[in-house]
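Next up, a chain.

===
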Amino acid sequence: MRKRCPYCHSYGVVRNRRALWRRLARRPRTYRCIDCEASFAWHDPPDPTTGEEAVPRRVPGLAQRTRRTAVRQWLAAHGAKARAGLASLRQRLWGAPIEVWVVKQIDDDILHLCGIGTLQSEQGRRRVIKALKQGDYHGGVRLGRTGVVLNSRLFTALPPLEALQLEHASRACWQGRTWRVSHVPQRCWQHEGRLVAHLGPVSDQAGLISSEDVSIIREHVDPDVVPAGIVAFQAGAARGDPLPGMGGRNIQEAGSRGRLTWPPGGPDLP
């Protein structure tokens, strides 16, 4: 026999999903009518005319009362820890953002660190975490709170937050050793060349700051080479400037009368 709604007598009755604590406490299932949007428990649906219960509530037996008492005692003793565990499980399974440290470059004893980033990928959460642990993640990385999303190929490593401990602004512990930290500014996030670290102010303290390596450019620059030819700069020689062809008399008359007059034959345009 198909279930009918006690309010509108419709057969469009669907079963609601029970929460985990309702399953542990063996709470009865609830149903919802898709026509009148009414929610009710099937064992005691109220009468829509009198407001009384159409089916009397069943008295729980000794075994059911014992189970309920045991569940209440367990929740009273371990409720806080259970709620924390469920919250952690919910964050891991349903859409919690995956945050990582963004390492731009790794030197002998220096980590060029961009900061904390959030992974942006259309793959499943489990696949992303597995690829991240294997060091084979390919996708987008959103840097900090800037909203800038960059490709992971621009960075050397993306260790999880728990894998890299930042001791203070200039030291970090990762892979069982201590590293010096060089902070990478935003202008170098998309730089695909080599970075060098130099001393600079970091959060009102002395620290390492990364910048582009321009030593290769300097090697190709010869300071003894003098450019051939002489460049002469003349007044009024800019393109589009109509003043070079004007005589001194016309300019003087323009200043006295408040208007410009051209010499005979029109202006001399470049």
Remarks:
- Residues 99-217 form one domain.
- Residues 61 and 67 are 10 Å apart (CA to CA).
- The two ends are 96 Å apart (CA to CA).
